[in-house]
């Protein structure tokens, strides 16, 4: 994986001192909270209901054991012994003291980590396929491009005070594991007929209160021109976008208002201009970065056999283990969704166990997923049993990837100052309702996503079953949505009808699932059944 | 027109009042123009030959449209004064300098020591902008 050189280190160290000075000025009263807010947000520091929350960047979801151990140290020293993995492959700490934040950032910098642009109206941490470099179906590893763009977009002077946040994702396979088209700018690496590598570019996606699925604006962009193209998109948006209504400032609104064609025309016009400026990074810099992502030294001649005589292990392998591009290796998913737990939460001790496993069995690599789980990307099949035993001992061996209990949930009203309703208890109640492992397997793939307000951090628009918490005359009310997808068959979930209270929503989810079981054909996923039969049979089951 | 409290140019300040973009395009004798957030700076490009001062308004410091305005003008070859006027915090100055602003008329005064600290904090930059700073990739590859 990528390693900082003295320049990267100098940038991160300078940001720590920058933030230390901003914090000092705030505490001394030289900055008002109004002035400090956008500054701290650009460094991932939110003021939540009970304390400050700090979001630490995990660029494209890749990190190593040394970094994970530091995250564990920080959880103990600055938080309450926990961390929370997010839907942007980052990690959040919920109990941070403002005056300690600069020291925390200084500690992160010692392991080549930071919180730069993890929040605020800036170009956010770039997300990528969590199986990058390991997936059997990828064209190439997308992470060198993600790292190149990380550098290109860090402290970009023109685009550091954007109308709103701007999210980029990069993948290089047909299967979409990164919710690609829900991003402001989505890049899929493809090859053209001449065999050259380039990007398929999508723009204008996003969730929030006005969801849009990104439009394809380019079939093929030569990869070396990506920074010019990205700057063209950003300039069109930055110059046009209104600043008078925060709810209408995301780029998706501009793309929608201008229309796909006109937006594309303006981007292409700016792109031609940017090409003349010579701002693109040269091939030599791509090559330098790509060298860090060279495949690890996989052993050859390994067997693909796995001894599945332990039935619990066999169930875990069946659910959590994915095909790897190298013979004899596998991708092992680690669930952070134990029944009754908080989706994405992990204790400092568990972080250290995962770090140990990564170091010993996965070429020192860990991945965070947008579904709030972890991955050991390069495990020898012969080592899977040992990995599973260690995970089991650490309480990390749940076998529920993409099943009904593998729920994405935002922090909700338990932590978040924007939320209208709690998300975590709903996720816990649904998971408890469907705790039986046999029942989960019988239901099959079913992605539930829960947001505690219309900002949609819990991706409810992309949920096969989505739940949106709202405030209805002072009480929490939950709307049910069906039919969303964050995969390559991207779709937006639709609302079923009137909302429910806390108990009612769990019952409604169960009635939805039971109706699916009645309607499905052999091997048909929930989403496919819904698409085949439509909303009505489900409404009938839900509302009677 | 706001007087520049901070100026990074050696020539004499322009004394002429800045007029709106529409007025500037009409009044062929004008040489100072004010561009508001929301104005399209590309309208000025055909008239750059007679521009001596561009004042760019920042109604709220979070409104970053003016950053693009300055860059568009620099990229069009304009080398006269570009002044940022309005709600300007010391934390913006570094990015503004990189985008091509070379004078500042902030509503609330900025401490010179704070400005110097902000401008010297980052030794390197990752990308090209309007200030001629050499990006890190170029330092890496010579």
TrEMBL record, chain A:
Domain of life of the organism in this record? Bacteria
Can the keyword rRNA-binding be found in this entry's annotation?
no
Q: Where is the Nitrite/sulphite reductase 4Fe-4S domain?
A: 119-273, 404-542
This chain belongs to which protein, by name? Sulfite reductase (NADPH) hemoprotein beta-component
Q: Which InterPro entries match?
A: NIR_SIR_4Fe-4S, NiRdtase/SiRdtase_haem-b_fer, Nit/Sulf_reduc_fer-like_dom_sf, NO2/SO3_Rdtase_4Fe4S_dom, NO2/SO3_Rdtase_4Fe4S_sf
Keyword Chaperone among UniProt keywords: no
**What are the recorded GO MF terms, alphabetically?**
4 iron, 4 sulfur cluster binding; heme binding; metal ion binding; oxidoreductase activity
* Keyword terms of this UniProt record: 4Fe-4S, Heme, Iron, Iron-sulfur, Metal-binding, Oxidoreductase
Q: What is the lineage of its organism?
A: Bacteria, Pseudomonadati, Pseudomonadota, Alphaproteobacteria, Sphingomonadales
Pfam families in UniProt: NIR_SIR (PF01077), NIR_SIR_ferr (PF03460)
Signal peptide (UniProt feature, chain positions)? none
Domain Nitrite/Sulfite reductase ferredoxin-like residue range list: 52-109, 342-394
UniProtKB/TrEMBL annotation, chain B:
Entry-linked InterPro entries: UCP030820
Task: Give one Pfam family, short name only.
Answer: DUF934
Protein name (record): Oxidoreductase
The species is: Sphingopyxis indica
């Amino acid at each position: 994986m990528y390693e900082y050189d003295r320049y990267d280190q100098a940038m991160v160290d300078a940001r720590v001192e920058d933030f230390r000075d901003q914090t000092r000025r705030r505490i001394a009263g030289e900055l008002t909270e109004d002035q400090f807010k956008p500054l701290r947000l650009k460094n991932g520091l939110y003021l939540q209901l009970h304390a400050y929350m700090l979001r630490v960047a995990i660029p494209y979801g890749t990190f190593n054991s040394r970094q994970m151990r530091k995250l564990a140290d920080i959880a103990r020293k600055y938080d309450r012994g926990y961390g929370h993995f997010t839907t942007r492959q980052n990690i959040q700490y919920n109990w941070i003291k403002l005056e300690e934040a600069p020291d925390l950032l200084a500690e992160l910098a010692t392991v080549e980590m930071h919180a730069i642009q993890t929040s605020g109206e800036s170009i956010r941490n770039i997300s990528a396929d969590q199986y990058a470099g390991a997936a059997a179906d990828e064209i190439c590893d997308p992470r060198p491009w993600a790292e190149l763009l990380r550098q290109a977009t860090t402290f970009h002077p023109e685009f550091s005070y954007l109308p709103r946040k701007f999210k980029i994702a990069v993948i290089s396979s047909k299967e979409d594991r990164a919710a690609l088209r829900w991003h402001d700018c989505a890049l899929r690496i493809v090859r053209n007929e001449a065999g050259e590598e380039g990007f398929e570019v999508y723009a204008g996606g996003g969730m929030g209160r006005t969801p849009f699925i990104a439009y394809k604006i380019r079939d093929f962009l030569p990869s070396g021109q990506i920074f010019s193209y990205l700057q063209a998109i950003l300039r069109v948006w930055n110059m046009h976008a209104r600043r008078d209504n925060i709810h209408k400032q995301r780029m998706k609104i501009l793309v929608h208002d201008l229309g796909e064609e006109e937006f594309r025309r303006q981007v292409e016009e700016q792109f031609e201009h940017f090409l003349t400026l010579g701002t693109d990074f040269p091939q030599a810099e791509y090559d330098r970065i790509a060298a860090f992502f060279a495949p690890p030294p996989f052993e050859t001649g390994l067997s693909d056999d796995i001894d599945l005589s332990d039935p619990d292990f066999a169930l875990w392998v069946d659910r959590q283990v994915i095909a790897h591009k190298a013979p004899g290796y596998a991708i092992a998913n680690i669930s952070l969704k134990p029944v009754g737990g908080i989706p994405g939460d992990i204790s400092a001790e568990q972080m250290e166990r995962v770090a140990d496993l990564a170091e010993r069995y996965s070429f020192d690599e860990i991945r965070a997923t947008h579904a709030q789980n972890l991955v050991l990307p390069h495990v020898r099949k012969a080592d899977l049993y040992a990995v599973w035993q260690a995970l089991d001992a650490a309480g990390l061996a749940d076998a529920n990837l993409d099943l009904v209990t593998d729920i994405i949930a935002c922090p909700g009203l338990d932590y978040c100052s924007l939320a209208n309703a709690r998300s975590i208890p709903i996720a816990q109640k649904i998971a408890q309702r469907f705790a039986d492992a046999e029942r989960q397997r019988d239901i099959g793939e079913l992605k539930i996503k829960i947001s505690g307000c219309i900002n949609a951090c819990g991706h409810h628009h992309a949920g096969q079953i989505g739940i949106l918490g709202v405030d209805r005359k002072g009480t929490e009310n939950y709307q049910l949505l069906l039919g969303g997808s964050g995969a390559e068959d991207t779709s937006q979930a639709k609302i079923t009808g009137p909302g429910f209270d806390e108990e009612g929503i769990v019952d409604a989810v169960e009635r939805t699932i039971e109706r699916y079981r009645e309607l499905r054909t052999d091997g048909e996923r929930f989403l496919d059944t819904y698409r085949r039969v439509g909303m009505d049979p489900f409404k009938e089951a839900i509302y009677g | 027109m706001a007087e520049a409290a901070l100026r990074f140019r050696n020539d004499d300040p322009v004394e002429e009042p800045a007029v709106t973009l529409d007025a500037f395009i009409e009044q062929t004798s004008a040489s100072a123009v004010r561009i508001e957030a929301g104005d399209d700076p590309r309208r000025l490009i055909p008239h750059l030959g007679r521009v001596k001062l561009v004042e760019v308004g920042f109604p709220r410091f979070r409104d970053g449209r003016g950053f693009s305005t300055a860059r568009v003008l620099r990229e069009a070859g304009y080398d006269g004064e570009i002044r940022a006027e309005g709600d300007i915090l010391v934390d913006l100055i570094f990015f503004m300098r990189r985008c091509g602003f070379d004078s500042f008329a902030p509503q609330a005064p900025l401490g010179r020591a704070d400005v110097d600290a902000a401008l010297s904090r980052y030794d390197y930059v990752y990308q090209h902008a309007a200030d001629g700073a050499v990006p890190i990739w170029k330092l890496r590859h010579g």
